[in-house]
Amino acid sequence: MPEESAEKVGSVSASRYAEILTELRKLMETASRIQFTIGDAALEVEPMRGRGGSAPGAELFTVRDSLFRLAEDIGATYRSVESARWASRWPKDRRVKDVSFTVHKILASIADEQERFTAILNTPEGKARWTPDDALRRVGQQVARPVTPQEKVSAIHTLAQDEEVAATVTGDLLRRPSVVAQVKVEDKVRAVAELTREDQVAAAVAPDFLRRPAVVAQVAPADKVRVVEELTRDEGVAAEVTTGLLRRPDVAFRAMSDDIARHQVNRAQVDPGWQAREHFQDTNPVAPAIIRSIERSVEFLDLVTACHAFVAAAGRVVPGMRDRQLDDDERTIVHENVARVRATLDWIETVVDTGKVDVDGKLARLLQGE
Hints:
Helices cover about 65% and strands about 0% of the residues. The chain is an all-alpha fold.
């Protein structure tokens, strides 16, 4: 007894499958002829009408009523009879014997007659006969068995029309790094923006981003400024950050070029002197007598405080200049400021000794930095 081929299709051998295929194709041809026959009959009962028009001598029945009656009288469904009526798109001499009625019906959606009649005669490349999916691809409709990536995407979109299903699928896909890596940058940005609309989620995600130098480096300067402003709204955080920044010479130099910032720093340096004076007045029993005995006590204390603040500031800053070599521009700026300080000190001594606060033109220009 000869050995049967090992190749099988489902539970049958390849040879038996070929026999089944031949039998069923004959039946499909018969079924197609039957459906076309039903369609032709339906067309005879209710010819296709122009939009908004009616057939000459039309009966009182509407098209739907007529087709319902026909379907019931032959024991078929209204939908099958109404579907077979599409035979109007395929005159008898244009029908292809080896092509199923289903394929004919799908290709019937091609509006141009000549294109439709030509299309059914040309099977898809690499195929011996038309299949329903091939016909659906030809007319741009979704196939039952997607093969190409685009067809699979379309199928997923169709299945995920429900919001809950879409959310579940999206979550599953985003857990696959290889999938996320292929998402376009702009789509990732939109996705992150949507996912972080909730403040609590955004707050949890933001620190992770800010810990990645490569990410921070790509943020626009204006956005970095806004982020720092938001993060330093707390006074304690702002004080700590500002102290650290002002220890960087280049940052401090640029910051002090802002008039308001410089004024605030100067005020901060003077405030401790005011606080010390108030403490002295409040705690020293002889303070009232001493203060009353000094003419213009407020101006005197302000002057002493200013001198103290300058000396204290210089005492903090100058030691930090050890082993630091300034360039020509930096030395010029420092010398100019030292000259202004020296002139100011001479002026203070003159006022203290003579009580005259007038300054000559040269000194005024020097004090103004001219």
